């Protein structure tokens, strides 16, 4: 009886030990799956797409698990970061494989349904990726996706069944590349020269300003006794100016009164002067007409003068004939 009980007890202990080991293994697997789900490295219940992006420059701070965002919304994570070298040409490339979760992005279909995310079509529409700083304190980096159709797509021809997202440099990366091009040495020399110039100017002012201030103070002290005389002169000038202004006001009033009293006479005088001026203009116009070479009056006057000259010549000839023969007055020239 005792010998039959011992094997039964041993068999029960073996079953209990196997059950404990199986429970421990099952709990470990559950904890492992839970850890993978919590840390986001494995998504067992969601479909994922993979894409690749080729980065240029330093990728320090970017590691597997780094977030992939689209306008601040996390849509995936970095799966792997590797370095590819070309021994012949010496070129290098850094492909970064991304794991994207299309469930985080909902595309509204025209009929009101939900459309599946097509990365290739989104790339053709302008989807681009850039390397951004996730934290300035820790230096961690992230991949940010953005629709930038104005930026040309530069592809590297990756053919491992993954869609390639073109890479564009962020503003911070462009600034980092431009900083080494800044002539810091020339700027520092210019700054030092400017500082030396300012120092020399300050030294010159410190050496010249005190004597100038002393002379100015001496001039002010010398002018202080003249202040009463200057004040008296200014007061006298003000009084004389006031008197002149008073005389001017009185003269202006008298002139206005005289003009008001003699207004009709002045008007008549101005009218007579205007009439005389018009008559003078008329006489001048007539004189101009008489003096004109083709004027009729001038032509008649010239003809009359010619006739008078001819008559004068005839009288002069008659007078000569009478002087030679006075009897012509009695018998005439025909006898």
TrEMBL record:
Top-level taxon: Bacteria
InterPro entries assigned to the protein according to its UniProt record, in alphabetical order: Mce/MlaD (IPR003399), MlaD_Phospholipid_Transporter (IPR052336)
Keywords: Membrane, Transmembrane, Transmembrane helix
Pfam families xrefs: MlaD
Residue ranges occupied by any Mce/MlaD domain in the UniProt entry: 56-147
Residues passing through the membrane, by range: 17-39
PANTHER family: INTERMEMBRANE PHOSPHOLIPID TRANSPORT SYSTEM BINDING PROTEIN MLAD-RELATED, MCE-FAMILY PROTEIN MCE4A
Protein name per the record: MlaD family protein
């Amino acid at each position: 009886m005792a010998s039959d009980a011992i094997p039964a007890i041993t068999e029960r202990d073996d079953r209990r030990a196997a059950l404990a080991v199986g429970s421990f293994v099952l709990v470990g697997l559950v904890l492992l799956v839970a850890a993978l789900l919590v840390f986001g490295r494995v998504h067992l219940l969601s479909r994922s797409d993979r894409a690749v992006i080729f980065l240029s420059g330093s990728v320090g701070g970017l590691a597997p698990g780094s977030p992939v965002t689209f306008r601040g919304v996390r849509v995936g994570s970095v799966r792997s970061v590797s370095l590819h070298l070309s021994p012949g040409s010496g070129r290098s490339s850094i492909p970064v494989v991304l794991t994207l979760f299309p469930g985080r992005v909902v595309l509204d279909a025209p009929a009101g349904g939900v459309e599946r995310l097509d990365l290739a079509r989104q790339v053709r529409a302008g989807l681009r990726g850039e390397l951004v700083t996730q934290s300035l304190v820790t230096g961690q980096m992230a991949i940010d996706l953005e629709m930038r159709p104005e930026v040309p797509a530069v592809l590297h021809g990756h053919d491992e069944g993954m869609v390639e997202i073109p890479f564009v440099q962020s503003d911070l990366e462009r600034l980092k590349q431009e900083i080494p091009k800044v002539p810091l040495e020339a700027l520092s020399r210019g700054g030092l020269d400017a500082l030396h110039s300012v120092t020399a100017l300050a030294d010159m002012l410190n050496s010249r300003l005190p004597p100038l201030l002393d002379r100015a103070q001496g001039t002010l002290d010398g002018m202080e006794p003249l202040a009463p005389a200057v004040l008296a002169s200014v007061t006298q000038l003000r009084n004389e100016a006031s008197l002149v202004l008073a005389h001017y006001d009185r003269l202006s009033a008298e002139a206005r009164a005289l003009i008001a009293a003699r207004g009709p006479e002045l008007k008549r005088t101005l009218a007579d002067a205007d009439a005389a001026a018009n008559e003078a203009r008329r006489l001048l116009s007539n004189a101009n007409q008489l003096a004109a070479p083709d004027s009729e009056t001038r032509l008649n006057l010239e003809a009359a003068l010619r006739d008078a000259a001819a008559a004068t010549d005839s009288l002069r000839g008659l007078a000569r004939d009478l002087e030679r023969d006075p009897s012509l007055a009695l018998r005439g020239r025909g006898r």
